[in-house]
Amino acid sequence: MRLALKKHEDGRLRPQWYGHANVGGRERVFTLCEIKGTPPASLRVGDEGDAKFEHSRARALAMLQSAVADKRSEADEVASLERVHAAKYGAQIEQVPLDDLFARWVDLPRRKKLSEGHIKAVGHWIGEFVAYCREHQPRAKTLDAVSAKTVKGYLKARAESGITPKTWNEVLGVLKLVYGKWAAYAPGAVALKEIVRLEDNPQHRVPYKPEELETIFAVAQELDPDIYPLIVCAALTGMRKKDVCLLRWEAVDLDNGFIRVQTAKTGIWVEIPIFPRFMHVLRQAQAVRREGNSYVWPEMAQLYSKQSYKLDSRLKSILRAAGFVDPAEAPSEGQTLAPQLAPKEILLRALKAVQKAPGWSTKRRGHAQACVETYLQGASVNETAAKLGLSKGSVSGHLKEVAALAGCPIIRQAGQPLPGEIKGHTIAPNDPKSPRKKRASLRGWHSFRTTWITLALSSGVPLSTVQMVSGHTTTAVVLKHYYRPDRENLRAQLQGALPPSLTGETPLAIKPPTKKKPRARKPARAVG
Q1: What is the pLDDT of residue 443?
Q2: HSE-CB of 353 using CA atoms within 13 angstroms
Q3: Alpha-carbon distance 213 to 6, whole Å?
Q4: What is the pTM of this model?
């Protein structure tokens, strides 16, 4: 342990004392207090200066002794923790470089394969954490060397960046995982134990009512018969979209009326009864099955694997026709959507409008009439243009002009709902206080799963039975994210289960207590 004086490159004396000491087998350098007074002319640490200089020397030596004692105490504590860790787990604490953190996380053993989206998200979070450590604690090269202050600072910065509580909780979970694996006794791990998850209030998917399901079934059969079996499967089994699209014949037992599948998300095996409507679509699929096709719906399995988003857009068209629209498409107060008429009625109105169109030439009337007639016979805009030898823009322009004159829509829109039939929204309305680029989905494929669980629990099916079908391992997930009864359903359940004294219904007449007549005492027997 020794003090030292250091010089700048130009030969000037640096204004601080420095100390050298061996701590844990390593030579450490400490920056100490400021030099006071006049140093010796030789600028050698062994030579004597004035009184103020010698006073600052004594102060620097005391600081050096204290710093070395603290470092040695810390080194002894770390060594003790390492001995405890080795005794408990049979291995020394591993120092994982921050640069290797993400690769180590990817290589962790898991029951199921990670999705590319999850790997990308965690890679982004760990990359941000490492970058934050380099900026605020550049000397920390390994995970165990990151201070508690740095860990807390990173989480605070992420919270202030505007991410949702759900994403922040996921970041916290990743940090707790990596610290628990490779630096369980580090200061950062101790700090993480004190941090609690944020209260998350997500937008839950809204279940469909039974009558809404029937409407969706009917619309799907008419608009998109290829998607109809998938919707039936999702609604009657509660399976996720991936499990529905990739359902294989080996999982289907038509004779006993059950399917047995391993869920794609959790890897849990579930058995689900096949009810009549689902049995019907399975029989139809079996009738057209080709040899060698292992999937129940091979075209849909291929579409899911290559262009999954098209399944979402096709379902959105069906939902729109059933009355579930984007909030931006819903009419404002006092506004109604244009009526949707039968093709014959639209044709009559359109032809009258073309004949009465003011200022139109004969040629223009002829083109407009031909466009309307061809299009209303079922041709698309492109097909109409090809048949009539017109451009796509001309056909579209003629149809829009005639529609404005006739007062009714002509161009087919994917399931434009009738006035008064808007039943709900497919995505959450945008909050002006915290607008988001991607809003939460309220109704979609996963809503069929929410619907199945909600209707089953509302009908009195035990929660344990629901979990056997849904594949959930914890009741908390089912009750928090999937059991979403509407207000009237909740009212009916409680009103049917609670006693009249709690529901406010007419209570039973309470009879006044009757006074018991005193018993007549028997005369005492004579003794003797």
Answers
A1: 81
A2: 22
A3: 82
A4: 0.53
